[in-house]
Amino acid sequence: MHLKRLALALFPAAALAVAVGCFTDPVYPGNQVLGSFRFQAKLDAARTTCDAGSREFAQLDDAGSFYFEGTFSRDTDAGTGFLTVLGFTRDAGYTGQSVNSTHRATAPRASCGTGCEDSEIEENLNVILLSDSQARNVARDCARLDGGVPEGTIPAPTENGYDVSLACGTLTDIFLPGKGASCNCKPATCTTVYTVRGDRQD
User: Is residue 7 part of a domain?
Assistant: First the structure.
């Protein structure tokens, strides 16, 4: 589950312990929260070049999926956007109904050899956000999007919160080799691709 792995890689254990001990309501950056989603990421074997059978590259259940939760928010005044996963916030770009978030973190892997500590994962989440009416027009089935945006009211703020109920797209993990003298990553670089569907939780 590389979204979780990326978040954990950026926090010291002590900070995580403190975070786990707090039970306050989460605060998200920006002045507009679009929503929190539970995502299913399903392996796209045709576009995956890593060994998906290795837990080093893909931590999947028996159906070839894994799950994670994330919250989209943005600062409408500054024109900046965010994706928060496991309490860690990373940048996200918003263009119309599309959201793109790319993040890179150090992720040592055994296949790079003993002493290789600077291998990395570069991860990209690219989704389209659908309003409730748009989601209903495709029967809440991301496969029916066929690369386009369905008819319906576009996502927008309402008196009951932001009108977005479904997120559809892809998650791509690129495993990059370490550069140290002790690094002998096999494969040097490979990619794991997932199709993702996110259902609004709040």
Answer: no
Question: The domain containing residue 153 runs over which residues?
Answer: 33-201
Which residue type does 153 have? Answer: T
Residue with tokens 């600062």: 75
| Residue 168 lies inside a defined structural domain of this protein | yes
Entry pTM: 0.86
C-alpha closest to that of 127 among 10, 32, 40, 31: 40
pLDDT in tens, 162-197: 999 999 999 999 999 999 889 999 999 999 999 999
Number of domains in the chain: 1
Q: Tell me how far apart the alpha carbons of residues 152 and 113 are, in angstroms, rounded to a whole number.
A: 52
35: left (phi over 0), alpha (psi -120 to 50) or beta: left
Task: Classify residue 152: in a domain, yes or no.
Answer: yes
